[in-house]
Amino acid sequence: MTTYEPRIDGGVSDDERAWWKEAVVYQIYPRSFADSNGDGFGDLPGLINRLDYVSSLGADVIWLNPVYDSPQRDNGYDISDYQAIHDEYGTMADWEDLLSEIHAHDMKLVMDLVVNHTSIDHEWFQKSRQGDPEYEDYYIWREGDGDGPPNNWQSFFGGSAWTYDEEREAYYLHLYDTSQPDLNWENEAVRQDVFDTIEWWLEKGIDGFRMDVINLLSKADGLPDGDPDSEWVGSEHFIDGPRMEEYLEAMDEQVLSNYDVMTVGEMPQLGVDEAKSYTGTDGPLDMAFHFQHTKLDYAENQRWAIGEWDLQELKEITDRWQNGLAEEGWNAIYWENHDQPRVVSRYGDPVNYRRESAKLLGTFSLTLSGTPYIYQGQELGMTNSPWTSIADMRDIDAINHAKALLETDDYDEYTDIQDTISYRSRDNARTPMQWSPSENAGFTEGEPWIQLNPNYDTVNVGDAEDDPDSVLNYYRRLLDLRDSHDVLVYGDYCDLLPNHESVYTYTRTLDTNEGTERLLVVLNFFGDETTVEVPVEFETATLLLSNYDRDDDDPTTVTLAPYEARVYDLG
Question: What residues have CB less than 8 Å from 198, skipping those under 6 apart?
């Protein structure tokens, strides 16, 4: 395998550069990462003990999922105290040690910001339901419509988005679980409390925020009924609402702009035009997550139905975002996170070509324009886990949908829906990190809080470290490649074969002080050998990286093995 030369410097102005553009982010779901005390739950000391591993991968930033105090009904996204650490994870002193150690490893820390909703256990909600004058309008309370809820909005987790509270004698809005009431951002006191919380964490020295469902903060005046046939009933009235940009601009002006930090918004139903307004030159955020590429395998656009996916649709989505944000805005590139099943089990082949397809999918995400995000275990090629019983699950979303399906006349027992639920469950991303082939995958000496993926005896860090051809070591070469070539960060993107059904090939091009730097990426996304003529002109070509043992420097006509990935330097 040919090694690559250091990148060509120049061609990118200081105004265009930013540390968060050139970074690679490693996402850690702390509950499942590393347990230090044998209670079966990942914790902060365990994470500290594994920082050498994260650093060795080449990551620049750690995005840490919520570690705040929480009753854990939605695994930490139901926060009861924004300024305290949940006792399963450790103490505030442990968190401060973590921050110090991350910075000592020359990495940065991004925390999760969850401010669309809190837990029902939060002091604000408890006072609000009691009618405390200071807090009664901290949440969205309404009288019912006759014998039913105020409108037809649905929770993302299923059922009505309204729950009747006996103490307040009114309905409260929750776009997610019943335990996660939505904050009332119309209330200036709510906004100020949130801004104070943000500033509190920034003063502790963190390097930014990933903002959970941040474009849901503003709801339409009057809370009108939604289209009953839409994918998420009511969403046209609570996604990108009328005051959304106002709220984020205030957050930026009052707090974020005072610090050199990175911000990324999770934004359901985000389109390119909206992304430009949020992340453009004058936008309040640096980048945003969209979900268009995570729905390729939905049948008839239904989340709980599995369909065949189309490479040309992936190309269309990627082209739209790569070119749409080329002049204004910035992309956040990812395959996996704590809410998505394992990508090898979705768009790769976990049985016959697990290694090859995991490497190909990594090559794709790490050679596009934008900031790449790697979810824990993705760099090992971790796969979905079998879920043979609802009792084994911890994902409230999957459990609710499984129960809802079983209440219909279409299904009699769990085995009738097991394939769909197992494929789509968020628990697939939350099985413990697979550190070794030893008991409990080296994650804990106790009983894991969630079942292990049974393939940990062959897919784990220990074995991968010793194997030069492992997915892990390939990811390290990918991160080195990206770090060595400005063109992979700042270069233009051009799809060369938009109509090819199995091969995805594109160039990245950057004009520099020493000439034009151009890389060519060639990817066979499926399990059949394919020969393709690549329509690209060049004077010299050098193969920089491949997930097969190759030494062919000519990309003109290429025969690609199943799930083969190649990256060429075109001089």
Answer: 113, 209, 251, 255, 256
d(CA 468, CA 477) in angstroms, rounded, equals 11
Tokens 């006509």 -> residue: 557
- CB–CB of 172/119 below 8 Å? no
Interatomic CA distance for residues 480 and 204, integer angstroms: 31
Distance CA 526, CA 564 (A): 9
Determine the residue type at 216. Answer: L
With a CB cutoff of 8 Å and minimum separation 6, the contacts of 407 are none
| Tally of CB atoms within 10 A around 196 | 13
- Whole-prediction pTM: 0.95
Tell me the average pLDDT of the chain: 95
- Residue by residue, DSSP assigns 334-378 as -S--TTS--HHHHHS-TTTSHHHHHHHHHHHHHTSSSEEEEETTG
The answer to whether 210 and 204 are in contact (CB under 8 A) is no
Token pair for residue 543?
């193969």
3-state secondary structure of 458: coil
In tens, the pLDDT along 95-115 reads 999 999 999 999 999 999 999
Residues forming beta bridges with residue 516, ordered by sequence position: 511
Query: Tokens 């991004």 appear where?
Result: 110
Under 8 Å between Cβ of 559 and 529: yes
**% pLDDT > 90, the chain:** 91
What is the greatest pairwise CA distance in the chain? 76
Answer whether 263's CB lies under 8 Å from 256's CB.
yes
Amino acid 545: pLDDT: 97
Catalytic residues, by residue number, are 212, 266
Q: Which of 163, 204, 185, 263 is nearest to 67 (CA)?
A: 204
The pLDDT of residue 16 is 85
